[in-house]
Every structure is written in structure tokens, then in C-alpha cells.
Amino acid sequence: MTNYEIMFIVKPDLEEAAIKKEAENLKKVLTDRKCKINEEKAMGQKELAYEMNKYKNGYYFLYVVEATHEAISEFDRLARLNENILRHLVIRVDD
Predict the structure, then answer these.
(1) What pLDDT digit, counting tens, does each position of 19-70 carry?
(2) Fewer CB within 10 A of the end CB, N or C, for the chain?
(3) Which helix (H) or strand (E) holds 88?
(4) Half-sphere exposure of 73 toward its Cβ, with a 13 Å CA cutoff?
(5) Any residues with CB less than 8 A from the CB of 6 and at least 6 apart, and which?
(6) Residues forming beta bridges with residue 63, ordered by sequence position
(7) 25 contacts 17 by C-beta, under 8 angstroms
């Protein structure tokens, strides 16, 4: 398995429970595929560097995981389809 850092931004106009549910759903995508979550951070609401889809703020989340390429591909696919995710980024971390 390979180490990855995953960051994603959730829309700020959702209720707090819905924001946490979106993060848990994306985490479940990884854990269902036998990935190991080494670190999980809810970084809170932050101002975006530039306006995205008429939003100036977003809720940031960071996961540091050990995962297979297939699990990351599925995470990427589902994050692209999820309309509540403004942006996401997956970076492979070299040891």
C-alpha cells in the first residue's frame, strides 16, 4: 500500500451534521476498501483563496492514509460526483 494525503473542501452552507456526514461518507469509501487512516483532521471553516461556485468559504478536511491505487481511484470518482464537495486533492507521499 502507498501513503497518500487527501484534502477536500465541503460547501459551507450545509448544516454541521451534514458536513460531518459528508466527511464520514468519504472516509467510509476508504475504510471499506481496507485502507488505513493514519491521521484525520477537521480543519474547520476557512476562507478560500478565490471564489469557487459562488462560495468564499469552505470546511476543510485532511486525511493521511495508506491505500491501494484502486481505493484512491474510487475516492476520486465519488468526490468528483458529490455536489457538496467544492474541491479535493489527492497527493502521493513518498517515504
Answers:
(1) 999 999 999 999 999 999 999 999 999 999 999 889 999 999 999 999 999 9
(2) C
(3) strand 85-93
(4) 3
(5) 62, 63, 64, 65, 75, 88, 89, 90, 91
(6) 6, 40
(7) no
